Amino acid sequence: MSGSPDLALLAGDVLDVAPRLLGSSLTHAGVTVRLTEVEAYAGSDDPGSHAYRGPTPRTRVMFGPPGRLYAYFSYGMHVCANVVTGREGTASAVLLRAGEVVDGVDLARERRATTRERDLARGPANLCRALGIGLDLDGTDLSRGPVRLVLAAAPDPGRVSTGPRVGLRGAPDRPWRFWLTGEPTVSAYRPAAKRR
Fold first, then answer.
1. Around Cβ 29, how many Cβ atoms within 10 Å?
2. DSSP strand E in 29-127: where?
3. pTM listed for this prediction
4. What is the pLDDT, as a whole number, of residue 6?
5. Most buried by CB count within 10 Å: which residue of 10, 43, 52, 124?
6. How many CA atoms lie within 13 A of 121 on its CB side?
């Protein structure tokens, strides 16, 4: 696992890894975010995953090795980021949905035109904007690259809530979104809009 015993657990099943990431910190370009909300995506077993139909130039990073950053453009305007998990060759990743800025608040505020500290990294695009993460960081090794993931102790299971993923049309009801109960930085749940 890229020589990092700290991140070795990322090689596990995505449904085990996702809640384990809660409370962990992600640092880039002078800002650190403590993760408060994530979503699991299970590749070819998951119609909600970008990798459902196999590898493409966009999704190749999701096929491993674990511990890499999968960054992608969403809705033609926002960058979102995932932590790649599972064994190499099998796609799975955890979308980083929200967090609390715990270091570099002023820098995050410069990147995010909001006066509410709660909202600086609330939502996957806002989290990337606060951290200064762009598409150029796709494939970054999170154990030693410019984006660093530091795992926290596993959260108390009683503090972790779970529910449906946000805005999905494929497998929308799977309870694969995990968040720290009561955290104000957790994003609002919105189901996908129905196609007309």
1. 16
2. 31-41, 69-74, 78-84, 93-103
3. 0.92
4. 67
5. 10
6. 33
